[in-house]
Amino acid sequence: MLNYIKSKISKFRKKIYNPRETDEYYGEFIGSLNFWKLLLWNFLYFEKFFFMFRNNQIKLFNYFKLRIKLRNMKESEFKQRLNFLNSNGYLIIQDYFSLEQINSILNDNSDIINELKSVDKEISTYRRFRGVPLNQNLVNIWLDDHLINLMEGYMNSKIYSRMYPTLNFTQCTEESSSKKIYENPKKAPKTASYWHVDYSTTMSITVFLSDIGPSDTRMQIVPKTNLNLNTFYKISDETVEKKKIKIVDCIGKKGSVMIHCGNVVHRMKGVKGSNRLGIHYMFSPGTNIALDVDFISSSLSKNYDLENLPHNKREIVKGLFPKKVRQGYNIKGQNILFNNFKGL
Ligand SMILES: [Fe+2]
Does the model's pTM come out above 0.85? Predict the structure, then answer.
């Protein structure tokens, strides 16, 4: 009964938000960049707005708060990068990690990478390995102080790792468009090749493990859309084209780093026959932590000792690798809470 009511409300909200199909809004591609349409959506889907509000992640508020903080910060490379990230919702730092560090990642994980590259599929797809075995080199890249500080500055919050380090090999067999996906959903690529946003409260980092040029398979971003109160719907190519904003190609040499806000509009732009390899991390203010025992096992398969991490870094990964608690945990319905009972 409850599910029936929920589905009726959901259909009703969708109908009010988008009453009819047009050249711009069709099928699942009803996400928008139009201010009034987004305002209506947030009114109808108020619970998503409150989720962001509760987590201090209304991006436009944070944008102005950070503008004030930046004014009082002394000139530095950090300030310039934070300012760019705040305004655009993404940042690419060219050649951030050394080739030595990147080659270590490639060598340490050569079996996994060869496996990812060996499965040839007929459809464009991501081939992912989650829970890459941790060692000091990988941890140095994953929990890099400068990148963590940039993300905390942008989010105006402490951040936590929400996903285990993931190797991602993207294979592109066919170029795609929103119209093609709409007209032939069975042949749709298994990659996020359409314009979309991720969870609004997350930040992603991709470290390029291969050179990515302007005519390769790459990510594209619509800058400044991080400040919108975006919907969770896919966005058509026509909607983005109509907006006439300059689209940014996320390109760089091996060792470059890309940070992007989960709330910025982006897509994977596939180029037939061009593949890419990267290592991917996600962070959040403590929301949507993807705790998984299989990935814990895989991450620690080379016996990396997390307890030797500095306190602040052990804190960042505590959602993925819960700490030992002296008095154990209590189960309360669906929740597992640590026991903080203080006896006499
Ligand atoms: Fe995405």
Answer: yes
